[in-house]
Amino acid sequence: MTTLPLTTEPLTLLVTGGAGYIGAHTCVALQQAGYRLVVLDNYCNSRPQTLQSIERITGQPVIAVEGDVRDRALLDRILREHAISGVIHFAGLKAVGESAEKPLDYYANNVAGSLVLLQAMQAAGVKTLVFSSSATVYGTPQFLPYTEAHPLAPVNPYGRTKLMVEDMLRDLHASDPAWRIGILRYFNPVGAHQSGLIGEDPQGIPNNLMPFIAQVAAGRRAFVNVWGNDYDTPDGTGVRDYIHVSDLAAGHVKALQHLQQAPACLALNLGSGQGHSVLEVIRAFEQASGRPIPYQFAPRRAGDLPAFWADATPAERVLGWKAGCSLLQMCEDTWRFQSRAGALA
User: Fold this and answer.
1) DSSP bridge pairs for 183
2) Residue 248's CB: how many other CB atoms inside 10 A?
3) pLDDT (tens digit, 0 to 9) for every residue of the chain, 345 residues total?
4) Cβ(100)–Cβ(124) under 8 Å?
5) Contact between 9 and 131 (Cβ < 8 Å)
6) Catalytic residue among 158, 186, 231, 242, which?
7) Residue ranges of E strands in the chain
8) Sign of the CA dihedral running 80, 89, 57, 54
C-alpha cells in the first residue's frame, strides 16, 4: 500500500484536471511546497500552454499527460510508472446551467470518471485523495452561514454529481479506514496568480461573474447582466462568498499535509466566511481596473439563491488554513491577468 509518510523525499502526486483554473493554481502551490507533479488533463476546458506557465512560475517541470480520467488503462500506467503517492482530483465539468442541459455528460464525467479513478487507485494501493467538491452540495440554505453540518440537498445535476462522489468516498473510507480522503467544498473561486501568468480564461461565454466583469472592463463585452435586483439583501443583488484562487490552492496543500498525519475522511468548507453582492464586486473591479463597468438589471434566473456564504472556521481549526485576500486584491489580480491575456491575444 502506498501512503503519504512524513519524509523529506519529494513525493509524486497525480493532479487530474491540473491545467484548469483551480488545478493550475494548486499545481503552483504544490510545487512550491516540494511535491513532484504528473498532470492528467483532456483540455476540454483548459489549455496545454497553462502547464508551461506553471513551469515559468515555479521553475520546476510538470509531467503532462493528455487523456481522460475515465481511461482505466491510462490511469493504471500513470500510477505504476510514476510511483504516484496521492491524487488531487479536479477533473470534471462544472457549469451549473450546462449540467441541467446535458446531465448525462455530467454524470459520465464527474461520477463515472471519479469511479474509474478510485478503482485504479485501489488496484495500485494509492489511498490518498483530495477531492474538489462544491458548496452546491448544500442546496437551498436552511441556515447561514453554511456549516459542514448543513443538510446536503443539491438542487441541480452538477451539485448532485459532487454529492454522489462525496458519498462514494465516505463509503470507501468506511469499508477501508486506511484511506486518507479530503473533501473540499469550494465557494466562489476568483482572482488569478499574482504573476499574471495564469488565471480564469473560460472558453466561450463565462459562466461566472468575475471573468465576465473582466471581459467587460477589457472591452470584449458591452455590459454585465445583473440577474435580479430585488433580493432580500443589502442592495437587492445576490450575495456570494468569493475566495481568492491562491487561497483556495493553499487549502489543498494544507489538506494534503494534514492527511499525511493519519488516515481520515474529512469534509471542509473553503471560503472566505463573508459575502459580497454583485454590485460590490462591480464597484471593486472598477476601483481595481480604473475603468467603468456598465451593467444592466435583468430578471432573476431560475435556481439562483439570494445569498450564501461559508462558515470557514473548521478549516482554520483542523488545517490551520484561513483565506487572507481581500475582494479588492481578487479584482486586482484578475485584472492583471485579463490585461496580460488581452495584450497577448
Assistant:
1) 131, 267
2) 28
3) 444 444 457 899 999 999 999 999 999 999 999 999 999 999 999 999 999 999 999 999 999 999 999 999 999 999 999 999 999 999 999 998 899 999 999 999 999 999 999 999 999 999 999 999 999 999 999 999 999 999 999 999 999 999 999 999 999 999 999 999 999 999 999 999 999 999 998 777 888 899 999 999 999 999 999 999 999 999 999 999 999 999 999 999 999 999 999 999 999 999 999 999 999 999 999 999 999 999 999 999 887 889 999 999 999 999 999 999 999 999 999 999 999 876 554
4) no
5) no
6) 158
7) 12-16, 36-41, 63-66, 86-89, 128-134, 180-186, 188-190, 224-227, 239-240, 242-244, 264-270, 276-277, 295-298
8) positive
146 three-class SS: strand
* Domain boundaries, given as residue ranges, for the chain: 12-190+242-271
CATH number of 12-190+242-271: 3.40.50.720
Cis peptide before 145 (omega within 30 of 0): yes
Model confidence pLDDT, tens digit, residues 45-76: 999 999 999 999 999 999 999 999 999 999 99
Round to whole Å and give the CA distance between 84 and 316: 28
β-bridge mates for residue 269, sequence order = 185
Decide if 158 is catalytic: yes
| Identity of the residue numbered 326 | S
Residue in 332, 339, 331, 224 with CA at minimum distance from that of residue 276: 331
117-122: list long-range contacts, CB under 8 Å, 24+ apart.
Answer: 117/16, 117/69, 117/75, 117/87, 117/89, 117/91, 118/168, 118/169, 118/172, 119/72, 120/72, 120/75, 120/76, 120/79, 121/79, 121/87, 122/172
- Residue 101 corresponds to which amino acid? E
Which stretches of 171-317 are assigned E, i.e. beta strand?
180-186, 188-190, 224-227, 239-240, 242-244, 264-270, 276-277, 295-298
- 238 in helix, strand or coil? coil
The answer to whether 157 and 295 are in contact (CB under 8 A) is no
| Phi, psi (rounded to 5 degrees) for 268 | -135, 145
The one-letter code for the residue type at 291 is R
Residue type (1 letter), 109: N
